């Protein structure tokens, strides 16, 4: 064999090894199979919190942090912020929600994602039944793959 063929074979072998190791690294950092026994515990390890709030004349801007401390990949999630509706006996959830921007389709275990929500003043202006002091957060998504059995919802607040 000539030196050129040997060099090409070595380069091809290294390319295949690099591809395989990269694939295993990217796809092996989370549990593949959903464990029904600990699913609720793992969902509890997914958090969304408000880390900064800025008031503007036309509304309020929120900076959020989504932290996936579960062992599962979060797929196609959406994060929402809303203001609770004040009731005589407490508060109730509000169907008027604003979706966060800056989200990702796939969030790996131990990954944090910074999100933004702008709540326009029109959503609560001149309505004393809206509790703007205690915003509610919600995440909807799937664990590992998009199928009905892997769907989850989690809320914080009212």
Account of the 3D structure:
With 158 residues, the chain is of the alpha+beta class. It folds into two domains: 1-30; 39-156, Immunoglobulins (Immunoglobulin-like, Sandwich), CATH 2.60.40.10. It contains two helices and ten strands; from the N terminus they run ααββββββββββ. Strands 3, 6, 7, 9 and 10 form a five-stranded antiparallel sheet that branches. Strands 1-2-8 form a three-stranded antiparallel sheet, with no helix packed on it. A two-stranded antiparallel ribbon has the order 4-5. A hairpin with a 7-residue loop joins β9 and β10 (151-156).
Class based on secondary structure composition and strand pairing: alpha+beta
Counted beta strands: 10
User: Strand fraction band?
Assistant: 35-45%
Catalogue the unreliable spans: none
Helix content: 10-25%
Q: Mean of residue pLDDT?
A: 84
The CATH homologous superfamily name of the largest domain equals Immunoglobulins
**How many helices in DSSP terms?**
2
The secondary-structure element order is HHEEEEEEEEEE
Question: What's the quaternary structure here?
Answer: single chain
Q: What would the CATH topology of the largest domain be?
A: Immunoglobulin-like
Proper CATH architecture of the largest domain: Sandwich
Q: What distance separates the N and C termini? A: 74 Å
Write down the Rg. Answer: 22 Å
Morphology:
elongated
Largest sheet: 5 strands, antiparallel
């Amino acid at each position: 064999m000539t030196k050129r063929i040997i060099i090409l074979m070595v380069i091809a072998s290294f390319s295949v090894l690099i591809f395989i190791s990269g694939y295993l690294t990217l796809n092996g950092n989370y549990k593949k199979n959903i464990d029904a026994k600990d699913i609720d515990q793992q969902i509890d390890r997914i958090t969304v919190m408000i880390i900064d709030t800025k008031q503007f004349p036309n509304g309020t801007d929120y900076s959020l942090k989504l932290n996936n401390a579960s062992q599962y990949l979060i797929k196609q999630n959406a994060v929402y912020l809303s203001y609770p509706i004040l009731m005589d006996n407490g508060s109730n959830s509000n169907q008027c929600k604003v979706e966060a921007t800056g989200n990702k389709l796939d969030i790996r275990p131990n990954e944090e994602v910074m999100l933004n929500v702008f709540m326009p003043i029109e959503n609560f202006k001149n309505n004393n039944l809206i509790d703007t002091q205690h915003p509610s957060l919600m995440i909807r998504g799937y664990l590992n793959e998009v199928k009905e059995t892997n769907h989850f919802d989690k809320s914080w607040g009212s």
